[in-house]
Amino acid sequence: MRTVAKTWKATCVSAKLEPTNICSAVRSAMNVMGLDVIPTINAMCTCLPQLFKLVADSTYNSVQDGTGLNGATSELINLLAKLEVCVLEQNFQISNNGAQVVQHLMDESKGGILLMAAEIDLEMYSKLVGAIVACAFGSCDPGVFTEYLEMSKEYMMAQLETALSGWRTVLKATDESIKAIGLAGEEVITNAQSLPSKIKTIEDQMCKDSACSGPVITAFMDKVDTMLNTVTGNTQVGQAAASITQSVEKLITLIEGAVESAGLVEEPDTIAKIVSTFTRIGDVIQTFKIVQQLPKLAESLGQDSQAISEFLQSFGTISDDAIKLVSEILEGDWEGNPLEFTTDSTGKVREGMAQIQDLIRTEVEAPLKEFSSQFSQLKQQVSSLPFIGKSLSVTVNVASYQRQTVVSMNMPCAEPGQFNFKPCPISVPIQWPNHHIPWIRLG
After folding, report:
1. pTM for this one?
2. Could you read off the pLDDT of 97-124 as tens digits, one per residue?
3. Which residues is 8 bridged to in the sheet?
4. How far is 98 from 151, CA to CA, in rounded Å?
5. Under a CB-based contact definition with an 8 Å cutoff, are residues 363 and 221 in contact?
């Protein structure tokens, strides 16, 4: 617009009025203030008005929390996805609290297995809703669910493999320990069963003329009898260990089967039935076979690990009691009890007592220590398995996190009738639909 000068004169005042282009004045003011609001204005004129309108729609809440699962929801999601792209293209950011939500979930799941499926963003939400609606009308195509599973496998398989392979490694080590316990236990029992006759032979040679009737020697021989009874009173340890080995191998097979099922979705007929029960988009994880398999695995782990718990309880104190008795027997000091050997002029009693100690040291102590060492190792191994002596539960849920854009800008503002522009801050928060991470936890 051209400027045309006019002059108005009065008796004592002379004023010059100039018509001015207001847009030029604003633009000039923005340049002076260093404001570049054109992208913001573009967003205000293209993306945001429609977005504000959609947010006010009653259907929006069901999309935001993931409970919207019908055709109308799908249309709204598609519109929101386009508007999201529009806003991002105008250099606005979408912030979220996803990292905090995931960290909280992981903290809650320590000690168990947490499987997180792929994040459901607006694009995947739209695809899944379309597939769910199709299933509701009798045309169930597992393709979309398989696509989502393929996306999730990268996350879930890694998590499952890490956890279950750890369990499998421990169980294999446990299997070896139990076998070693069985062998050591059988050796201890076999040797202990042969000792009474050997000890009797030594006694017959050294205990003539009441040479072994003193209280110290009598107490020693009583302790030897108690130790032998303790050891030989559990002849079933080898058989029990063999049975436990079978239980452990069954657990390993169960775990390997769970890993294999993690890469599969249910059959179309099953999916159609499952989909009819969905109340939110996160329920899509129910179409994964692993979700149906984990409760069975949890039940089997509880049942088959019971045998390990019973084995630990039944034989856990045997080695401790026997080792204590063996230690006391081998600590016997015959030189410190001269009154016991007043009739032992030839030293045969002392020699015989030492022979009995040597028998116990070689025939009982060595395999008993191996038994005890393997048993301690077994206890340590199974302590890292959350299903030993405990009942596991399976929880299926969805973690949803919030997403927000804050439209913040400085606009040129002036008082009414004034052309002296200055920056005016404007800030408008926009809550986007949540993103969702379905998860399943065994622990």
Report:
1. 0.69
2. 999 999 999 998 887 788 899 999 999 9
3. 15
4. 18
5. no
